[in-house]
């Protein structure tokens, strides 16, 4: 387990990794299988960063190789969540050469993707590091990769929003339209959900904020509001119920995040660290 985020247990992670390995290996690695006898030739390799950034996903990468051969030793040289520089060795791998070659692409792809997310997340975090609001991620994730992509945002310094539709209630604009209003939506949902779940309501105006307050929403999201309206909404919520959490969302960029944080919200949600991140380039060198 990382000190930044919680990786899924092997019961959950291993089937995902096996599926991705099967996608790549198919009916067999024609190149490696033609050159090497399985589990006979020993080998070693180093992972080298080709760009600077935040490292994430090394425990996942190590597990990829171990699924191919349980004797493989994957040694993380860089700490999870640490900043790396171009040319830095971030990991060493020792074991059967055929396993190293077969697992290379899947393991590198995952680590590069997760490190890219952690890197961009950390850039967003640095913009508001001296202010109280916390950055949270969203459900805009790659199908099949959500658990790992959200792990990467945590490594980068953010906190996770709900993992799925079953984690918490979020009443969005389309739910409000379907129910006929915020009050009706909150009332109907509250009568059916389990006790521990919280209710978040998305609002786009001060009138909707007031309605969400009247129906005791646990969290009020200020969605795509101009900064001045956002400040008014925060003041209104604080005056009426200091226990309500406030989340800002919508078109949050590196240029706007600090101004949003200065309105006094508790959380700022953004999909950008996941949807707009570039992979952090890593390479594997044998020997």
From TrEMBL:
EC class (word): transferase
Record-given protein name: Probable nicotinate-nucleotide pyrophosphorylase [carboxylating]
UniProt pathway annotation: Cofactor biosynthesis; NAD(+) biosynthesis; nicotinate D-ribonucleotide from quinolinate: step 1/1
Catalytic activities: nicotinate beta-D-ribonucleotide + CO2 + diphosphate = quinolinate + 5-phospho-alpha-D-ribose 1-diphosphate + 2 H(+)
GO BP annotations listed: NAD+ biosynthetic process; quinolinate catabolic process
Positions that bind substrate: 105, 138-140, 162, 172, 202, 223, 249-251, 270-272
PANTHER family listed in its UniProt record: NICOTINATE-NUCLEOTIDE PYROPHOSPHORYLASE [CARBOXYLATING]
GO cellular component: cytoplasm
Domain Quinolinate phosphoribosyl transferase C-terminal: residue ranges: 117-285
Record's function text: Involved in the catabolism of quinolinic acid (QA).
The organism of origin for this protein: Cylindrospermum stagnale PCC 7417
GO molecular function (one): nicotinate-nucleotide diphosphorylase (carboxylating) activity
Catalytic activity, EC: 2.4.2.19
Family the entry assigns: Belongs to the NadC/ModD family.
Keyword list, A-Z: Glycosyltransferase, Pyridine nucleotide biosynthesis, Transferase
